[in-house]
Amino acid sequence: MHGITSSTALWYASRATGVVSLVLLSAVMIIGILVNRQGRLPGLPRFAVLGLHRNLSLLAVTFVALHVITAVADSFVSISLAAAVIPFVSAYEPLWLGLGAVSLDLMAAVIVTSLLRRYIGRRTWRAVHWLAYASWPAAVAHSIGSSKDLQNGPLLGLAVACILGVVGALAWRLARARAEVPRARRVPDLMASQRIPEGHAAGQAPQDRLVRAGRR
Prior knowledge:
Elements: H1 9-34, H2 46-73, H3 81-85, H4 94-115, H5 117-120, H6 122-129, H7 131-146, H8 153-179, H9 183-194, H10 198-201, H11 206-215
């Protein structure tokens, strides 16, 4: 390729939007893993974290849609719209494009259930929302397997950085979870750290204990 022409514009657009989608999806994954139970990140308030996560997610979905549209419209290879949605039916690179379709379908399920969250309940929404974590490895495998640009050179380094970022965030989250005090032990540990006497913990005043000791 000696530059972008009218016949190669869609090819370049498909590759570029695919790379940007991979970076954005990885960023969304990292934030989702690092966020604690209160929806916060170290040093950021809850509203800022939610806004950042939501905006990155919307931006990632936009680039994924552009990636699919340009890939289908590109005449260099024959990829039907059905192959972009239905896994493993493409005649061209069926495995790697099938993984891309799996990732796309999982993201679509998360988006639809998020829009219907008030009608389906939090438990169902949360169960489907976990699918977002399965969509990321499928997207990574699709990106590296279907694009030779990501199999060597600087773009391979970028893909490896995305993978290491997500793996590092997961390792940090697991380490924090292991270090956290179990909920059943939080009150006893807090009482021990504050050196609260047993009588206080049971609601017994010090005077009551002295009176009882005098009666003995």
